[in-house]
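Exam prep: given the inputs below (a chain plus zinc ion), describe the expected output before reading on.
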Amino acid sequence: MRILSVCCFALLPLALNAGEAITIISRDAWGARPPRTDISTYRQYGIDNPGYSRIVLHVTSMGRGVGPAEVRRIQDFHMDKRGFADIGYNFLIDSDGNVFEGRSLEYVPSHAGRTVEGDERHDIRLDPDYRSIGIVFSAETDQTLTPAQVEAGIALIRDLEKRFPIESLITHTEVKQSLVARGLTPKRDFDPETCPGSGSIDQIIRIREAVDPTFDAGAYRALFAGGTRVGDKERLSGAD
Ligand SMILES: [Zn+2]
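Solution:
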């Protein structure tokens, strides 16, 4: 395994397995803009080590794209149009299966949304972004993921499972039910067609079956049984 960027994350040691080849293209390598200085840190909430334990899968809902320009496109969109302090996701997998480092894990991510309770109590522990690593695939909601994206997704998740005690792997659209199960109220609704959308159902299932023995493919498919509306973009009801 080769990691171009060890990133800025010194909170947990990296457990690297030389048998698997995954290259994570660093922020420097893709020409990332620096995060805004007001980016949220865990320390400002009195948290020294967030101990990432969840992974949330997304699609960009912005079509397919490849290379550093694709990551810069998403970062520009998040910072200039959405008002984020940096790209919201922690990793991006482009249509060729290249894996890019997104927001550093030393900062609070911004991809899974927030809760009413978290806002009221000013407690990020109640927000779904807390301890959640966001992985996004470049694709439109009605597009399949490419075979290279599927392979890279499996490899990245397996790598993260070695580095962090990952307890759950869900898609953005399942965030709501995970919050409700914890007695929390999402600030926004999550339409399955918004993210990740029905185009990637088979590929998302393949990825999850490869890494999660508890995954229920039938239940995931059932999320999309209610309709086939495509069009609302991640930017309308996704992370904020
Ligand atoms: Zn999403």
